[in-house]
């Protein structure tokens, strides 16, 4: 049997609630309803799931999805070794067996035929058939499936099927309001509120350009990076350029505009 | 007395001596001599006076009348003051050169603006460059016209001299050279046009002038400014540039109205502040007004009161802007003039503007250092007002009115107004701030009701699109050089095309076999899959060998299939120039190239239709750069049906081949298609040419450039030429993407084949 405790979140992650999402999640978990977390990159989706796992004291198994992932990467596979074959559970099977929260990050990156294997786990059946082994796993009562996806940036080709979407309850995340984001930066990095507010302001500037040359605005995660750099003594303007501007764009005009915002905000 | 002077009788012996040195008998010179010498003595040292007088004397004896000498005597001292006395030799050399050429008449115009030019250039080296430009212009535009055996003076030269100061206001000497060079190259054979060009009357001339201007051009930074407005201020209004080059009397000021934010078309750097930051300051200021200012009813306020309210309100919104982005203060302060406290004398001059400008400076600049007690008191009141919140326009106006009342002086009414250091050029004209219940007595209305009615012009066909043309000699684009008119091709009888296809039934059958082979198979094998629809035997055996040998086998032994379609968009551009009407062969089939082209186009369209690739067909011909006709025959979304066939049936040939413009226009359609591969297929029977172009090299180079432009857009251009002698130039234009068809009779067969082999 797999060691359950290794999947527990040991320390309380810092999470600042934006609304009633904590209580709502708890309700969903109590009913073991599958949950979908939507929102732009770096707005705190993964942190939220981690926080909830800690709060509920349940193991959390995270899978980062990619387009080369196959169903057996989730369910498990036979491995060949010198003595013949040996079955190895995949993360989804493990989670179903031990009663963990299974978090599939960026689910749309996975191929559609892969996504389908989660279907029997996400409706009233709560079972996982493993056809290669001829085994039918009944999910542990504590098991819950959480997926995240970012509806914004992916191509039109990548979207969840309706049959998948309609198996989940959903949270819509967005970047927090300026005051809230300021306090998040301050608490996460220990940066002074005043400087944090300026960073948030630059973040807003970047987000205004979404759709006008930027696919995604400056995320809270990047703002935290910048704040961390400033906290370590890096000059504020350099930190902003390094953490907020250079990563997100190669467009000279946008860069000049954001640089100007930095120059006029930090003086 | 005047008579005495005419004889050169002066009281002072030195004057007498100077007059003798000048050695002239023109009475007009005597009239101004004393005055001119007085001015000359201020800037020219005594030893150099002789040279000055000798030069004047020389000009008097050119045989061009009194004018050159008069102008020289009057203007030269200013030239010396601006660039120094060393300028004399090169200037005289140039005058001598003009005298030897047929351009002697232009000497006067040259001398007339010389002082103004020198003031703008400020150094002998720069002036030398200016003379070189003039010399070049003179050498290249003087000559015989249409084989006359006499030489003609340069038509553009006098106009060039006349406008030189104004041009140098806008351009550096380098820019001026480009401007002149452009004029010479394009109008050297057209005297009237040349005059218009150098007289700044031609649209071209202004366009090139605009392009060469110093500073930051609006056109270059428009996107950045859009982004700036959107990102920093969440304001997405239209930016409309106004011209600053040709309005000499009244310099326009930025403003905004319903149609958008109006900004100048160019900003030069101002000290440390770059042009782009000046634009940003202008935009930020206007955004401030849009956010925080409310219109005030102005009927009961005097112009002075309104001016004061404007100053206060401008400062209020700037304070608020600086709260948002503190770094703006640095830019504002750098652009804001710093009036000197005692610069204005209230006894003789109206000082209100000066007082308000100082106040405005003090409101923004904590280290203003002004001592005036009223000013400081109001600065304090202003800051108190803004201390808790944004305040509003009405409060600000109240403060402004009380300031005017408090500091009022009788002299404010004087006609002489102190203007130095009071113009704050990044601020808009505040027309939005005022609301008049009655029509004001002011002479100008901002919102003239007549002008606000937009007159709809009647739309006849599509408006022309303008494209630049590449000038290979100067390596620049000629702005908006060609006008492309697009129109729907007239229709004929579609049955003709069906008949043509029938005629080629055998060929069609052959093509069909090829098409079936080419038709998208829709299946692509993906190997190395752990799970797939089939076992990949090669890999499976390799894995088994590994396994038996004790190594870890690769579990990815399956393969699967993925559907894959052709994703090609193609535009066929057919040259419809006059030469297509020629018959093929001497006694052969007797078909014209046009008929063969029709057959070829029909077969290709039919074949591509079978393949399912999106295809567009267009024809083009041109009649000078002002009329490039681009005829729409088939659009990407249109079916290969009777309507399209009818247009193909009606294809007619005429006029010339200006290929670059047509390529650019076609590229603009093709560029909008979303396809993996975009192909522009050009069918032509000769090299690019047009009747208004004498240099064959020019249009070739332009077409080559157009092909390169398309290439950067990801559009592949391929040329099928029917000109047997095409090898000479077609390689130069299309690189290695071309084919020459030697036997034109085979065109109907070859065109579809070519396409198929290209896209195999």
Instruction: Determine the strand fraction of chain A and express it as a percent band.
Output: 15-25%
Largest sheet of chain A: 5 strands, parallel
Low-pLDDT parts of chain A are none
If you average the pLDDT of chain B, what whole number results?
83
Separation, N- and C-terminal Cα atoms of chain B? 99 Å
Q: Note the overall shape of chain A.
A: elongated
Report Rg of chain A: 21 Å
Percent helix range of chain A: 40-55%
Oligomer: heterodimer
Report the structural category of chain A: alpha/beta
How far from one another are the termini of chain A? 59 Å
| Fraction of residues in β-strands of chain B | 5-15%
Strand neighbour order, sheet with most strands of chain B? 8-9-15-14-13-16-17-18
What is the rounded Rg of chain B? Answer: 37 Å
The tally of beta strands of chain B, per DSSP, is 18
Tally the helices of chain B: what do you get? 29
Alpha-beta classification of chain B: alpha/beta
- What letter string, H or E per element, gives the SSE order of chain A? HEHEHEEHEHEEEHEHHHHH
């Amino acid at each position: 049997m797999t060691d359950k405790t290794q999947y527990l979140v040991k320390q309380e992650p810092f999470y600042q609630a934006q609304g009633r999402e904590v209580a709502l999640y708890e309700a969903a978990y109590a009913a073991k309803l599958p949950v979908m977390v939507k929102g732009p990159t770096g707005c705190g989706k993964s942190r939220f799931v981690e926080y909830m796992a800690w709060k509920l004291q349940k193991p959390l198994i995270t899978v980062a999805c990619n387009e080369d992932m196959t169903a057996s990467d989730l369910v498990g596979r036979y491995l060949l070794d010198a003595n013949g074959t040996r079955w190895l559970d995949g993360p989804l099977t493990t989670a179903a067996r031990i009663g963990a929260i299974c978090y599939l990050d960026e689910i749309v990156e996975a191929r559609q035929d892969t996504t389908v294997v989660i279907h029997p786990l996400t409706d009233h059946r709560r079972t996982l058939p493993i056809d290669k082994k001829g085994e039918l796993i009944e999910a542990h009562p504590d098991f819950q499936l959480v997926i995240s996806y970012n509806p914004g940036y992916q191509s039109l080709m990548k979207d969840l099927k309706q049959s998948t979407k309609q198996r989940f309850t959903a949270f819509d995340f967005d970047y927090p309001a300026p005051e809230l984001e300021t306090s998040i930066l301050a608490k996460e990095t220990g940066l002074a509120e005043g400087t944090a507010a300026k960073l948030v302001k630059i973040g807003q500037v970047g987000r205004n350009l979404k759709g006008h040359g930027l696919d995604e605005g400056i995320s809270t995660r990047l703002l935290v990076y910048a704040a961390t750099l400033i906290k370590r003594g890096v000059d504020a303007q350099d930190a902003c350029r390094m953490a907020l501007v250079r990563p997100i764009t190669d467009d000279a005009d946008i860069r000049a505009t954001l640089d100007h915002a930095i120059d006029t905000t930090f003086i | 007395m005047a008579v005495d002077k005419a004889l050169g009788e002066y009281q002072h012996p030195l004057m007498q001596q100077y007059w003798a040195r000048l050695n002239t008998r023109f009475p007009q010179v005597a009239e101004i001599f004393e005055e001119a010498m007085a001015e000359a003595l201020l800037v020219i040292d005594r030893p150099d006076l002789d040279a000055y007088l000798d030069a004047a004397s020389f000009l008097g004896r050119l045989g061009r009348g009194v004018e050159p000498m008069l102008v020289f005597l009057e203007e030269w001292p200013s030239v010396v003051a601006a660039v120094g006395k060393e300028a004399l030799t090169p200037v005289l050399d140039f005058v001598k050169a003009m005298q030897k050429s047929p351009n002697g008449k232009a000497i006067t115009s040259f001398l007339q603006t010389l002082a103004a030019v020198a003031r703008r250039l400020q150094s002998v080296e720069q002036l030398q460059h200016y003379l070189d430009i003039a010399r070049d212009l003179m050498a290249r535009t003087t000559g015989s016209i249409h084989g006359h055996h006499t030489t003609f003076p340069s038509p553009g030269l006098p106009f060039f001299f006349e406008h030189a100061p104004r041009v140098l206001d806008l351009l550096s000497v380098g820019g001026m050279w480009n401007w002149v060079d452009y004029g010479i190259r394009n109008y050297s054979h057209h005297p009237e046009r040349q005059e218009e060009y150098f007289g700044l009357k031609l649209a071209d001339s202004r366009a090139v002038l605009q392009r060469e201007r110093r500073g930051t051009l609006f056109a270059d930074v428009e996107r950045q400014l859009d982004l700036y407005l959107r990102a920093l201020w969440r304001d997405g209004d239209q930016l409309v540039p106004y011209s600053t080059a040709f309005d000499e009397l009244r310099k326009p000021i930025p403003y905004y109205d319903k149609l958008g934010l109006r900004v100048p078309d160019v900003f030069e750097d101002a000290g440390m502040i770059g042009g782009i930051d000046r634009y940003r300051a202008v935009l930020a200021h206007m955004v401030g007004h849009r956010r925080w200012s409310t219109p005030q009813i102005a009927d009961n306020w005097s112009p002075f009161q309104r001016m004061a309210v404007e100053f206060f309100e401008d400062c209020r919104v700037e304070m608020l802007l600086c709260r948002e982005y503190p770094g703006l203060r640095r830019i504002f302060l750098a652009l804001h003039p710093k009036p000197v406290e005692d610069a204005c004398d209230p006894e003789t001059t109206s000082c209100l503007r000066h007082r308000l400008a100082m106040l405005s400076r003090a409101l923004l600049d904590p280290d203003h250092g002004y001592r005036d007690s009223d000013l400081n008191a109001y600065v304090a009141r202003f800051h108190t007002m803004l201390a808790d919140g944004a305040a509003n326009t009405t409060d600000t106006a109240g403060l402004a009115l009380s300031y005017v009342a408090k500091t009022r002086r009788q002299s404010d009414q004087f006609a002489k107004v102190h203007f130095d250091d009071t113009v704050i050029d990044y601020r808009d004209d505040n027309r939005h701030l005022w609301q008049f219940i009655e029509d004001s007595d002011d002479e100008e209305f901002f919102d003239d009701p007549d002008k606000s009615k937009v007159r709809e012009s009647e739309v006849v066909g599509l408006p022309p699109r303008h494209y630049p043309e590449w000038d290979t000699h100067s390596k620049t684009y000629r702005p908006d050089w060609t006008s492309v008119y697009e129109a729907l091709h007239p229709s004929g009888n579609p049955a003709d095309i069906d008949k043509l296809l029938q005629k080629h039934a055998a060929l069609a059958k052959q093509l069909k076999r090829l098409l079936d082979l080419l038709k998208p198979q829709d299946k692509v094998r993906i190997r190395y899959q752990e799970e797939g629809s089939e076992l990949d035997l090669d890999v499976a055996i390799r894995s088994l060998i590994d396994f038996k040998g004790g190594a870890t086998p690769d579990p990815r032994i399956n393969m699967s299939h993925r559907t894959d379609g052709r994703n090609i968009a193609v535009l066929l551009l057919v040259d419809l120039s006059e030469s297509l009407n020629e018959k093929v062969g001497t006694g052969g089939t007797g078909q014209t190239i046009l008929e063969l082209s029709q057959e070829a186009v029909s077969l290709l369209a039919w074949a591509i239709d079978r393949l399912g690739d999106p295809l567009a067909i267009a024809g083009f011909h041109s009649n000078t750069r002002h009329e490039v006709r681009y005829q729409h025959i088939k659009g990407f979304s249109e079916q290969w049906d009777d309507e399209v066939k009818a247009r193909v049936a009606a294809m007619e040939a005429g006029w010339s081949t200006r290929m670059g413009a047509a390529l650019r226009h076609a590229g603009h359609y093709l560029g909008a298609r979303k396809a993996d591969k975009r192909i522009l297929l050009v069918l032509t029977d000769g090299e690019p040419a047009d009747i208004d172009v004498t240099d064959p090299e020019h249009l070739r180079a332009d077409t080559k450039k157009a092909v390169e432009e398309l290439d950067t857009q990801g559009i592949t251009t391929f040329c099928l030429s029917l000109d047997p002698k095409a090898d000479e130039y077609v390689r130069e234009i299309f690189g290695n993407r071309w084919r020459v068809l030697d036997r034109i009779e085979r065109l109907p067969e070859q065109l579809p084949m070519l396409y198929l082999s290209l896209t195999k």
